[in-house]
């Protein structure tokens, strides 16, 4: 019950374990995030294949739910009991580099290894000219729309602009069958990102050129007003602040929502859970000037500086980033290919859904590489929730959030 | 001489264990909270209680502190008010009492996190069971978005908090009730005391020590309780259902301010310590009088 005590107890226990747990020679411990039910079995098979091909090296994967990954890493690193390799959100990487716990991989990376990667996805893991991580998972966001609802409402094409999206949402609402035009996420992880889609289309960036928060700009206000007006007009699902990404995705799968913005893995889920749903994937709508932006995300696998088995760990990395392994992992999880050879495979070339995502990559923004990014994201999410709920006026909420974000950014 | 030291000697092992499990982490927390601390817990220089000052200046912390008070009083009070009659009913002899007792105890057997997850689904606006039930009964005509705002989410969380606290509290009271001799009631009934008088003059006074225990233990549990609020709203929307422990979790593991989080933890520890000491003092003085 008592989390506080539990946490310190855990830290204490871990640090005691630190004396006891001596890394075995030739053992590589890897902390991996559980992306779906397929993650565990995939790494099980990696263990088998890799150990068979590399006698003398044993691999131990620790599969951790995504929500507690950062917490586990924090306690492990504090206690000095971290694994040799770990998957992390690339947006956390700067903290790991600044605290000097991540090992630069440049001594291991040969040109032909580097050449395996698509630059867009490798570059977020490079800091000060050094490569600290390899993109193990990559994703972007695009607009999903329900073709059946579009047909019923007499809409021919997915919306190209936010104005069209509003029009389409009105038509879907007018069907009056308990369906909602636009699924708006207002809870938990990526609540801020959902707002950025509208903000980017106004030509506003998360950070202004001078490094201050973009939340105080007129473009940010326009975007917030757009979402708020859609909520007030009933063009979104009701109770926006009670729906996280999965909740909105579920509404989409149930055919209750006409449009939503999310990641490619929704296609995999629809295939499994709602195979009869007719849907399409399109670009994220553009703003009045034609600006548009999608959110690009990579997760990196990093090597810890205190690892005792770096050479063995590198062998495993080399193995994980072969085309065959990459294809198995990426296709199972519904991510985007990070490997050039892999991207040429039929699976990706002939997949209309994925094509829509890859077409958006030139417009992709990655989370800015700044310390304290998570706090800025939290500030933004909180401000959005206040606006969506109507407990604060958009202008006041954004001004307040911009001031808070700037205070964090100044540090 | 030997006899005077023997008790101390005998308690030494458990004292040592307590020191490792309790005092050492608290000492660690004091260290972290009074120093500049890195993202991964490495201590830097002493920082003049800047972490505590930051808390005092943080409106979210103050709001969470106030809400933790409301949360604790409402859940502990509610569970108490509900548990006394429940325990009294379960203490009487009736057909199917065994089954009734099991039903009351069941929520205790389910993990708190699971309970919270199930309620989160039940309270879902568009596909939740509660809304379909209420619409089916004709009590409401459109879906209520229970978790969308604190006005509906927090009362629901308090209600669930009460629900999961009742089994433990009832158990304590059942133990208390069974220790009251039946002759007292028989004698009172003979003298013409009404059931209400019996409750006020016999049951309640004799149950008091058990009520005190229930208050102290429940306050400690509920004050620190994390899963219900975290699973259902994560303290949101916009921190409007945060209590101290969810606020602490976000500070430590989302934002990475381990120093401020440790300070929150110490504040919580101090509040509980002071509460327990005052309460135990009061309760014991009352008993002696």
From TrEMBL, chain A:
The keyword ATP-binding does not apply. This is Multiple sugar transport system substrate-binding protein. GO terms for cellular component: ATP-binding cassette (ABC) transporter complex, substrate-binding subunit-containing. Keywords: Periplasm, Signal, Sugar transport, Transport. Belongs to the bacterial solute-binding protein 1 family. The keyword RNA-binding does not apply. GO terms for biological process: maltodextrin transmembrane transport; maltose transport; transmembrane transport. Transmembrane segments: none annotated. One of its GO terms (molecular function) is maltose binding. Residues 1-20 form the signal peptide. Coiled coil: none annotated. It comes from Mesorhizobium sangaii.
TrEMBL record, chain B:
Keywords: Cell membrane, Membrane, Sugar transport, Transmembrane, Transmembrane helix, Transport. It is found in: Cell membrane. Gene3D superfamilies: MetI-like (1.10.3720.10). It is a multi-pass membrane protein. Residues 65-279 form the ABC transmembrane type-1 domain. The chain crosses the membrane at residues 7-27, 71-90, 102-122, 156-177, 210-232, 261-280. The keyword Transport applies. SUPFAM superfamilies: MetI-like. InterPro entries: ABC_transporter_permease, MetI-like, MetI-like_sf. GO terms for cellular component: plasma membrane. GO terms for biological process: transmembrane transport. PANTHER family: ABC TRANSPORTER PERMEASE PROTEIN, INNER MEMBRANE ABC TRANSPORTER PERMEASE PROTEIN YCJO. Belongs to the binding-protein-dependent transport system permease family. This is Multiple sugar transport system permease protein.
